[in-house]
Specification:
The complex is a heterodimer of chains A (403) and B (224).
Chain A lengths: L6 E2 L10 H7 L1 H4 L10 H20 L8 E4 L2 H15 L6 E5 L4 H12 L3 E5 L9 H7 L4 E5 L13 H15 L5 E5 L11 H4 L3 E5 L10 E5 L25 H16 L1 H22 L3 E4 L9 E6 L4 H10 L2 E2 L1 E2 L12 H5 L10 E5 L6 H20 L13
Parallel strand pairs in A: 1-11, 3-4, 3-5, 5-6, 6-7
Antiparallel strand pairs in A: 2-8, 7-8, 9-10, 10-13, 12-13
Chain B lengths: L1 H6 L7 E2 L6 E2 L3 H8 L17 E7 L4 E9 L6 E9 L2 H15 L6 H4 L4 H7 L8 H21 L13 E3 L4 E2 H9 L5 H8 L9 H16 L1
Antiparallel strand pairs in B: 1-2, 3-4, 4-5, 6-7
Helix pairs in contact in B: 2-3, 3-6, 5-6, 7-9
Classes of the chains: A alpha/beta (403), B alpha+beta (224).
């Protein structure tokens, strides 16, 4: 039964490094390995490379200042630095944070940590599509709010949040109250390569990106930090990255991330169009051929590469292991794959009833996904579902579910 | 048996939780019973299978549901046939499949012996389950108990029906020993975690020593 065919549909978890990216990185391991802080030529060369990278990224983010780009070890560190850094730096004056219930754990867990440090956190609900309502942000804003952190696009269900509208709400609040607070941060890891990354259009003060979601290397990320936004570091040492992130720069990673971001930006329109078409086929065929299935997330306001479908009467982990036998790699928000035995916080936040929350299946298409891959999934999936349903005593009446 | 042991060698991590907190591996034997389940009853055959005992536990909302049908010889009380259906993850499916194999071995197990099957016995035959999946084998055991109770009911032996006794530990919040058992199976390995899950002792602090004792008992029972 084991097959050699591999269909990787978990690009929201991580992506395969593009060969062009790898090629660009290689000289920075054993040829140009100098420490950018060193005075001699080898070190200076490294510094130049990093400066150029910062300039390129600044351009892609819509012409921001290169010194507003901080390199970190990845999306998780960037989120932590933005949240813990800005909250702790301003704790004398402000101690309230606003975020949403469907954020990534790299945002939720630092927020929980801050609660233990005495901060108050408002976790905004989302509607059944996973959308944050800007009005809810407006109502939650307080004079002591230091930070609002709302993700650009959700990693599980693909819903795109109204970032610029939320930014507008925050801008008006600042104007009315004559204050520079709250800061607005967004995690854009899933959005990169598909959505507009122009900082001015988005209206954010901080933005997280990482390499591993955009066909770049793992272990490298950036935090865009607007000039004037005050944060304190998480890592202390040699004072690199404007004293906000010490540690010898990961030059190969920086070069790789820059190349990856450039490629992703260049291919944005073309890839969006291609993946929308493939995703549409996948979604429509599944909903048509497999009974008792439905789409999670917003029907239109969603990432072009994300299809998240609930399949009733069967459990996600069992489904994933069967698909794995056919070389199809996907993921689930099922309880059985979580630590807590609760279904995913995102699936619960969009109000899916518990009995329907165990069978969500996420397909995250990507740069290497072909129509042949989609056809292969459509050929194998119905049989797997049928076999699992045959041995399942569960028969949910879909018409009675409150969806 | 020899073959089974060989299959029990663990391979690399098979599943990584979506919150990335934990990963777990399944033994070859678990995988075998998951991919090639034995003795299941397909939904289209449900009406056609002859049985005199039916048991069910769990619900789709909690993520696991099991149904077991038995055909018991009323004279010898040997289990002549056993079928099942399971909604759940790989270990839940494999546990029920293995349980059915155990029941039918050597011409069928007698019900009184079947009642002695413990979750650990199923796990042992599977070559072990990842710690956080142990509750799946517990469910299989409970579904069997419920089926055998049904057999006793149908054959007029009500005195043999075993009802799972619950003992209230925290009298104010009505937390039972079963709640504590569940919490331990879900990963509460310290009193702090147990209290977070069950609130035991916050209503009636007098019960804390007893709750701590139960925590130790269930930890040893399931995790050794």
């Amino acid at each position: 039964m084991k097959t050699t065919k591999e269909v990787y549909l978990d690009n929201a978890a991580t992506t395969k490094t593009d060969p062009k990216v790898l090629e660009a990185m290689l000289p920075y391991f054993s040829e140009h390995y100098g420490n950018p802080s060193s005075m001699y030529k080898l070190g200076h060369e490294s510094k130049m490379v990093i400066d150029e990278a910062r300039e390129e990224i600044a351009k892609i983010l819509g012409g921001v200042r290169p010194d507003e780009i901080l390199f970190t070890s990845g999306g998780t560190e960037s989120d932590n630095l933005a949240i813990l850094g800005s909250a702790r730096k301003n704790k004398e004056k402000k101690n309230h944070i606003i975020t949403s219930k469907i954020e990534h754990h790299a945002v939720l867990h630092p927020c929980e940590k801050l609660e233990k440090e005495g901060f108050e956190v408002t976790y905004l609900p989302v509607d059944k599509y996973g959308l944050v309502n800007p009005k809810d942000v407006k109502n939650a804003l307080r004079k002591d709010t230091v930070l609002v952190s709302i993700m650009y696009a959700n990693n599980e269900i693909g819903t795109i949040e109204p970032i610029s509208e939320i930014a507008e709400v925050i801008k008006n609040f600042k104007k009315e109250n004559k204050t520079q607070f709250p800061y607005f941060h967004t995690d854009a890891c899933q959005a990169a390569g598909y959505l507009n990354l122009n900082i001015n259009d988005l209206g954010v003060d901080m933005l997280t990106l990482n390499g591993s979601k955009i066909y770049g290397p793992k272990g490298i990320g950036i935090l865009y930090l607007k000039t004037g936004v005050k944060i304190e570091p998480l890592v202390y040492g040699g004072g690199q990255e404007k004293n906000l992130r010490s540690g010898t720069e990961n030059i190969a990673g920086i070069v790789g991330l820059t190349k990856a971001l450039k490629l992703a930006d260049e291919k944005k329109e073309e890839e969006t169009e291609r993946l929308l078409k493939l995703g549409k086929k996948l979604k429509e065929e599944i909903l048509k051929t497999i009974p008792k299935t439905f789409l999670n997330g917003h029907p239109e306001k969603r990432l072009p590469n994300n299809i998240n479908i609930t399949i009733l009467d069967i459990e996600g982990e069992a489904l994933i292991l069967h698909l794995d036998q056919y070389g199809i790699y996907t993921s689930t928000g099922s309880a059985c794959t979580s630590h807590s035995l609760d279904p995913s916080h995102v699936i619960l936040a969009i109000g899916l009833p518990y009995e329907a929350a165990h069978g969500s299946l996420r397909f995250a298409l990507g740069r290497y996904t072909t129509e042949e891959d989609i056809d292969y999934v459509l050929e194998k999936l119905p049989g797997v579902v049928e076999n699992l349903r045959k041995i399942s005593p569960t028969k949910i009446d879909m018409s009675k579910l409150k969806l | 048996m020899k073959n089974e042991n060989k299959k029990n060698k663990r391979s690399e991590s098979d599943v990584v939780s979506y919150d990335k907190k934990e990963k777990w591996v399944y033994t070859e034997n678990v995988k075998d019973h998951f991919f090639n389940p034995r003795n299941f009853l397909t939904t289209d055959m449900e009406g056609k299978f002859k049985y005199n005992a039916l048991g069910m536990v769990g619900s789709p909302a909690c993520g696991d549901m099991m149904k077991i049908w038995l055909l018991v010889d009323e004279k010898t009380e040997k289990i002549k046939d056993a079928k099942w259906q399971t909604f759940g993850c790989a270990s839940a499916i494999a546990s029920t499949s293995m349980l059915s194999v155990m029941l039918l071995e050597n011409g069928g197990m007698k019900v009184e012996d079947a009642l002695k099957i413990k979750p650990q016995d199923i796990m042992e035959r599977l070559g072990g389950l990842p710690n956080r999946k142990i509750h799946c084998s517990v469910l299989g055991d409970k579904a069997l108990q419920s089926a055998i109770n049904d057999f006793f009911r149908r054959t007029g032996q009500n005195d043999r029906i075993k009802v799972e006794g619950k003992k209230v530990i925290d009298k104010v919040l009505n937390v039972t020993d079963k709640d504590i058992e569940e919490a331990v199976l879900e990963g509460a390995d310290t009193f702090e975690k147990l209290q977070k899950k069950t609130k035991v002792g916050t209503g009636d602090p007098v019960c804390i020593p007893e709750a701590e004792q139960l925590l130790r008992f269930y930890k040893e029972k399931y995790f050794g």
